[in-house]
Amino acid sequence: MQTSFLAKYREARLPWYTIYPTVPEFSAAVGAEAYAEWLRDLPADNSVSLYLHVPFCRSVCWYCGFPTTITRQDAPILNYLAVVRDEIRLVSEQTPQPLPVSDVHFGGGTPTLIGPAEFLAIMECLRRRFAFRKTTAVAVEIDPRTFTAEMAEALAAAGVNRASLGVQSFDPIVQKAINRVQSEAQTAAAVEMLRRHGVSRINFDLIFGLPHQTVRSCVETATAAVAMRPNRLAVFGYAHIPSAIKNQCLIEETALPDSAGRAEQAAAVAETLVAAGYREIGLDHFALPDDELALAQKTGRLRRNSLGYSADTCKTLIGFGASAIGRVGEGYVQNEVTRDCYSRHIVAGRLATSQGYRLTDEDRVRAAIIERLMCDLEADVPAICAAHEFDPIRFLDSAERLAMLVKDGIVDIEDGIIRVRQQHRFVIRAVAAAFDAFLANR
Fold first, then answer.
1. At what angle do helices 149-157 and 116-129 cross, to 10 degrees?
2. Spatial strand order in the sheet of 162-168
3. Rounded to whole angstroms, what are the CA distances from 126 to 52, 83, 87, 159, 160?
4. Terminus of the chain with fewer CB atoms < 10 Å: N or C?
5. Taking the C-alpha atoms of 84, 86, 87 and 91 in order, what is their torsion angle to the nearest 10 degrees?
């Protein structure tokens, strides 16, 4: 991969395209009334996915861009959970009957700060208000530094069958530079506890481009991770935006690798994981051949939603908690971002939707093209347009960015099918951006 391509396409602050249109296009024009209407219109037999946001951590990781509250006390977490249970009730009362659930995901923050008894209680609340099946997948994000055997036992009792562990880097120098000191032994112990209690599907999150990180330390981290044999890994590039994310001001900018260094790190990690038997999934995921992501990719069913790459085919995602995003009916909705505003609405008996977006027919076409590019590194634009009754010419001939990508050898286009060259898969967001109608306005 040439450094000039990286400078041209990767350094721009492009969206990650987990959803389209992206959050900057949300507005207060879509609020609680629209959300309630969309919930009431949901087909009773269509499966939904549920997301619960738990915005608490015990300490701040300096690289982190997610809104979280640092607390050493359990009281704020317990108070928050009481509000979330009320929101679950309010939302479920809008639907004609309990909706069948395909997937549940607890994200954060650190969801396992909830505590064993409280986690079982929130799961029981969900089971009372929604229709769970034997096949319902339940996933939770875990910080190995605070994970306990008691929590592992509670997760198993609650029906959790997938756990995602934050690793980032095993290099002690890097860990100190990002304020996340976490030994290999801690991570291995968490994995062993989970597997011993029947939570057998394990994900790891790794990050490249961190301060003091080198190609060698990235490879050593990937090698140590592979030894624990997670089913899948997400390998993200660190985005340094201290002007927007204040805790990143604590990171030493001069210790960050340049674009070429980041590219070398990403390529080295990918080579290490592929050599260990993992399949490349989209932009930044790797999975064992029998993992759901690899199987979904093989059969053309891989999806990309607000949680990232997924084998979940549900069109509806209901989000609970402060700042949670959902896709329901005609568009997207997002709850109030701050816990105080979120709680005031729910305690008053109102849905906490603060903003959202109502999809147009053209949005749906662009979203479908972007999703296939992000998932498959190719998109059959004429076929997608035909399914939506749109003329593909307006998408293929009017995109200046697309012409530039063809000229630079990033993509090939034949009969309207766009294919990203494998060696340029790391600039897939730039290809997706060619179909973002809002990008020029940002």
1. 10
2. 279-281, 285-287, 232-237, 201-208, 162-168, 137-142, 101-108, 48-54, 316-320, 325-328, 331-335, 353-358
3. 10, 14, 11, 12, 13
4. C
5. 140
pLDDT one-digit tens code per residue, 388-423 = 999 999 888 766 788 889 999 999 999 999 999 988
The most distant pair of C-alpha atoms in the chain lies apart, rounded to whole Å, by: 60
In this structure, the number of other CB atoms found within 10 A of the CB of residue 288 comes to 16
**CA dist., res. 428 & res. 374, Å (int):** 7
Higher pLDDT, 424 or 380: 380
Can you tell me the distance from the alpha carbon of 92 to that of 318, in angstroms, rounded to the nearest whole number? 10
The Cα-based distances of 48 to 99, 103, 105, 146, 199 in angstroms read 7, 7, 12, 31, 22
Task: Output the pTM of the full model.
Answer: 0.94
Sign of the Cα pseudo-torsion (172, 189, 226, 135, in order): negative
Q: What is the mean pLDDT of residues 220-227?
A: 98
Counts for the chain of helices (H) and strands (E), in that order: 16, 19
Region 327-332: mean pLDDT is 92
Look at the chain and count its residues.
442
pLDDT in tens, 292-324: 999 999 999 999 998 899 998 899 999 999 999
- Residues 268 and 321: their CA atoms lie apart, in Å, by 38
Q: Concatenated DSSP letters for 304-362?
A: EETTEEES---SEEEEESTT-EEEETTEEEEE-SSHHHHHHHHHTT---EEEEEEPPHH
Average pLDDT, integer, range 137-141: 97
User: Quick one: pLDDT at residue 7?
Assistant: 59
**pLDDT classification of 12: cutoffs 50, 70, 90:** low
Nearest to 30 by CA among 422, 389, 331: 331
pLDDT score at 123: 98
The rounded distance, in Å, linking the Cα atoms of 47 and 44 is 8
What burial class does residue 153 get, using C-beta atoms within 10 Å of its C-beta: 0-12 exposed, 13-18 middle, 19+ buried?
Answer: middle
Of 151-165, 363-377, 385-399, the least confident: 385-399
Strands 232-237 and 285-287, how do they pair?
antiparallel
